[in-house]
Amino acid sequence: MSRKIDPYNVSIRGVKLDPQLICRLFGISDMGQQQAIKKLLRAGSKHKTWRQDMEEAGTSIQRSLEIEEGMNTIEV
Fold it and tell me: For a disulfide at 64, which of 26, 32, 40, 47, Cβ 3.0-4.6 Å?
């Protein structure tokens, strides 16, 4: 059985880093921001082009901004 290579997992000085760990280390909890970071870290390295990943990162950021703006108008 062949081993699947995950382009999001990178080892630096023996430490396995991936977008989830990086976000946790930096205290990033917003899901849209996490998604954008994942796209930006490895833009164009999988089945999508660099441009597609960059555009999708922008879409994730825009959606997070929309949600944040909407949360300011919701009364709980």
Answer: 32
- Report if residue 32 sits inside a domain: yes
d(CA 38, CA 36): 5
Token representation of residue 14:
């023996």
Task: Read off the pLDDT of residues 13-32 as tens digits, 9 standing for 90 and up.
Answer: 888 888 999 999 999 999 99
CA atoms of 74 and 8, how far apart (whole Å): 36
In a domain, 4, yes or no: no
Quick one: how far is CA 47 from the chain centroid? 16
Say how far apart CA 51 and CA 14 lie, in whole Å.
31
Q: Which domain holds residue 25?
A: 10-71
CB 54, CB 39: distance < 8 Å: yes
* Helix then strand then coil, % of the chain, to nearest 5: 55, 10, 40
